[in-house]
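User: Could you go from structure to sequence for me? I need the amino acid at each position, not a summary. Structure tokens:
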């Protein structure tokens, strides 16, 4: 199986944050969802941020990875495009819209979307 990191979306802060370093006491939580996208299709994947909006000083980020396994012609990952990547519903969900622009007959691309919450301690 091959993997390619497509995008690391910048940290979305729900408060004032200039430069942020992870403190030793920070809690990091992840949530992920994977979907297969056939050639020529577009899908929207929504993943809730763990403990979304629970703490005022939390930081939110998201990432998208592509992969595939054998079973036919290998897809060209350069043809897989992220059309939108943003937090939605007031910052409680991470939403990514992905298009697989490969030709018909190629293997489906597996897209994994990960939403991450960093909760610096102490909570405020």
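Assistant: Here is the amino acid at each position, in order:
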């Amino acid at each position: 199986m091959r993997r390619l990191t497509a995008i690391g979306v910048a940290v979305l802060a729900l408060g004032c944050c200039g430069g942020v370093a992870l403190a030793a006491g920070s809690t990091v939580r992840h949530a992920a969802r994977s979907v297969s996208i056939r050639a020529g299709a577009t899908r929207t994947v929504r993943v809730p941020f763990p403990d979304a909006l629970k703490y005022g000083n939390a930081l939110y980020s998201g990432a998208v990875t592509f992969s595939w396994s054998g079973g036919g012609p290998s897809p060209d990952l350069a043809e897989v495009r992220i059309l939108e990547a943003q937090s939605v519903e007031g910052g409680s969900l991470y939403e990514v819209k992905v298009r697989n622009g490969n030709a018909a007959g190629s293997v489906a691309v597996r897209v994994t979307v990960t939403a991450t919450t960093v909760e610096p301690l102490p909570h405020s």
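One structural detail worth keeping in mind: The mean pLDDT is 82.
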